[in-house]
Amino acid sequence: MRGALIRRTLGKVLFEYKSGFFQSSFSRRTYMAAVCTKLGQPLEVQELKSKEKLQPTEVRVAVKNAGINFADLLMANGKYQVRPKTPFTVGMEFSGEIAEVGSEVTKFKAGDRVVGIGKEGFATELVMQPEMLFALPHGIPYEKAAGMLASYGTALMALARRGQLKEMETVLITAAAGATGLAAVDVATSLYKAKVIAACGSTEKCNFVRERGAFATVDYNAQNLKDKVKSITDGHGADVVVEFVGGDMFMQCLKCMAWEGRMVVVGFASGDVPQVPANLLLLNSMSLMGVFWGEYLKRKPKVLLDNIEEVISLCQQQYLDPYVGKVFPLAEVNEAFQYIQDRKSMGKIVLSMT
């Protein structure tokens, strides 16, 4: 009996060590996290004290990987719609393993593989309610899973629900080498057999997205977007535009659209929110709409949950293939942010907690 007790104790210690946090009888358990202590300043990787006892409905996740979203950069710089009070742990998207569950949790058990959307994802451990945690199939690696939900969820929402994309239509996607842009290329080509015109900022990125399925590319730093799109489509224009950049790029995209074309605005990476010349919409019977993926959780939660489940299912069946461009250790989170800000990234940038 004493031997069995020792084996159970050693097993628990080994699990906690592998999960990224550790507790002994001499010290309280701790974990590492990327913390924003002051808006606009580099994040600090700190050792924080773990929550000792879970509430009955809470779960503890041992995080394996976390995906970096543009919203994380904006939030850390105080430029996002939501401005948390400092200090706060950054990160909204992660994958990992259930380390512990509260007494009333039945959805998961310790050891389950999960992927989730929430807060404080840039950490080796987090505690949360399980509503935005989802079972992660064994066929999907943790690295890919960490960058799967927000990018692919947004792309699918933009193209299917908002843009009403039809098979074989022509789609123009700006910032197409970025995480969500590349996800949109994948969704459009793999699910709708659409002809994707991918707009990027360099020859290297244009070549990359062509390898990932784009029908044609435009280097908008070297070519005229309107002329190139009209040439590629024999004057027809793009049936659907997914626009991430804003500013002058938005204005150029308006002039690239087909009669009764639909543009879905996803973001303003340039920092310039454009003014809409409504006469262009009227003259070409065009539709202009936006998509704010995260807001669906508050306004239409079932739509968002169904969207996430569909993304996981499509990735599990290998209809969609998330691309991880680079992995940084948690200790290099600021270098990862700078890599994205310098426009070096292609695909999703992911943090590793191990």
Concise summary:
This protein has 354 residues and is α/β, with parallel strands linked by helices. The chain contains twelve helices and 17 strands.
Q: What is the element layout, followed by pairings?
A:
Layout: H1 2-18, E1 22-24, E2 27-36, E3 44-49, E4 59-67, H2 70-76, E5 88-89, E6 93-101, E7 113-117, E8 125-128, E9 133-135, H3 142-146, H4 149-162, E10 170-173, H5 179-192, E11 195-200, H6 203-211, E12 216-219, H7 225-232, E13 238-243, H8 247-254, E14 257-265, H9 278-283, E15 287-290, H10 296-299, H11 301-316, E16 324-329, H12 333-341, E17 348-352
Parallel strand pairs: 10-11, 10-13, 11-12, 13-14, 14-15, 16-17
Antiparallel strand pairs: 1-2, 2-3, 2-5, 4-6, 4-8, 4-17, 6-7, 7-9
Helix pairs in contact: 4-5, 4-11
